[in-house]
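Good morning,

Attaching, inline, the backbone tokens for the sequence recovery test we're adding to the shared suite. The designed sequence is right after.
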């Protein structure tokens, strides 16, 4: 797995036993849910609801096990660690911004991958 890839296509395809149909379905489901997940994360963060943040991040990390999305997964893990360690607000803000940026990049990359491989 390439840790600097937004979407590791080959690893995702290997996870799906090289079924492009399954990869298409998984990526579409992931993409469809990502907007809602991003909104939930933003709302919880703005409300300083750390329990909800931990819950949403945990669920998203589980989703990453079905689609290899290294940058997003790394941003989730980094933010999760910061929340658990009760880091300063400045550090949390920086890591949350990085997470939101990774989420936006991922949405774009999934859209491109679906068009490129399944159009």
């Amino acid at each position: 797995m390439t840790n600097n890839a937004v979407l590791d296509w080959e690893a995702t395809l290997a996870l799906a036993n090289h079924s492009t149909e399954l990869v298409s379905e998984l990526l579409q489901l992931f993409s469809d849910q990502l907007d809602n997940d991003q909104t939930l994360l933003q709302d919880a963060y703005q409300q300083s609801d750390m329990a909800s943040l931990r819950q949403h991040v945990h669920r998203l990390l589980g989703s990453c096990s079905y689609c290899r999305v290294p940058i997003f997964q790394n941003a989730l893990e980094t933010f999760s660690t910061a929340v658990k360690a009760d880091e300063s607000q400045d550090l949390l803000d920086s890591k949350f911004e990085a997470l939101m940026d990774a989420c936006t990049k991922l949405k774009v990359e999934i859209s491109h991958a679906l068009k490129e491989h399944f159009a």
